[in-house]
Amino acid sequence: MIRTPICDLLGIEHPIVLGGMGGGHTQSSMVAAVSNAGGLGTLGCHGRGGDQIGEDAAAIRGITNQPFALNFLLFLTEEEKFAAALETRPAVMSFAWPDGDQDIAPYIERSHDAGCKVTYMAGSVAEALRGVRAGADVIVAQGTEAGGHVSWMASMVLTPLVADAVAPVPVLTAGGIADGRGLAAALALGADGVLLGTRFLASDESPIHDNFKQAIIASDGHDTALSEIPDLAAGIVWPGAMSRGRRNRFIERWSGREWALRQHQADTLAGIMAARGSGDIEEAPLSYGQDAGLIDAILPAGDIVRQLAEEAEQILKARLPGLVD
Ligand SMILES: Cc1cc2nc3c(=O)[nH]c(=O)nc-3n(C[C@H](O)[C@H](O)[C@H](O)COP(=O)(O)O)c2cc1C
Description:
Layout: H1 5-10, E1 16-18, H2 28-36, E2 41-44, H3 50-63, E3 68-73, H4 79-87, E4 92-96, H5 105-113, E5 117-122, H6 125-133, E6 138-142, E7 148-150, H7 155-166, E8 171-174, H8 180-188, E9 193-196, H9 198-201, H10 210-218, E10 224-227, H11 229-234, E11 242-246, H12 249-254, H13 258-263, H14 265-278, H15 301-319
Parallel strand pairs: 1-9, 2-3, 3-4, 4-5, 5-6, 6-8, 8-9
Antiparallel strand pairs: 7-11, 10-11
Helix pairs in contact: 2-3, 2-15, 3-4, 6-7, 8-15
């Protein structure tokens, strides 16, 4: 079995974390399935009300007694929801995407006061150091190949840069990891584990429409694009990032015509909500990473954790030692 310092720090068996995907991309059964399998499940709190966060935490605890995390997008965090999350006393609070001038230390201090460990996601060395200075216990180095909002550096380069810069603070690699090869590679690059989004979107417990799961299965990994169009349509100004998702008809229609989208924002958003409900993969923005090309089956989330751990162990035990004379 692969064990790294992060396993003891977060109280988990395998160094594998479910990304806290907000906006209805995670739910309690998915979080609990990952935690029950020995990983760390994370609920994305963006888009959930304070009461709902309390109910979700209770639902997770109804299925598992293992640690789990609650995730917040710092630039959109509302006090009432944050306070409600801390009241549930999760084992881990997970943060990402502050505004450039936002003071993040109080969020981390209050999480520590509530007895939580804290992870902080960064797409650059400077962001990683910002998280460490504010007191984060774990840095998530997120590469640009990831699904959702990303920075510009690839995981392959960012992981060792961040690991060197923040040592001895442990690092998780996010972006582009969908199988045991990715976990083994991340460990070789100096990470203590991995955080996955796209792979878990195509799980039985994922709340997204089945058509969206099928689109991930069908993807060869070459069909994503970075774009501000989904945020423009949602009326959100993201601090210094674009989002990676499927390059579908919706994205192609508005590319280069962002000025026109601003004029039709309300109608466009209504169209997106309808398309999301009906599972229209051409008209709803669908965030996923380049690693969609590595995913060819919808699996129970717990099996994903176990398979990843077993595959990585085989690579480290059987394949790699055989390459050393
Ligand atoms: C649909 C979607 C929504 C996401 N929402 C969030 C979020 O609310 N908070 C966050 O910290 N990360 C979010 N992420 C990023 C993930 O936490 C993670 O960094 C990323 O999915 C890792 O790359 P991968 O998709 O290649 O596994 C999201 C990713 C996706 C695909």
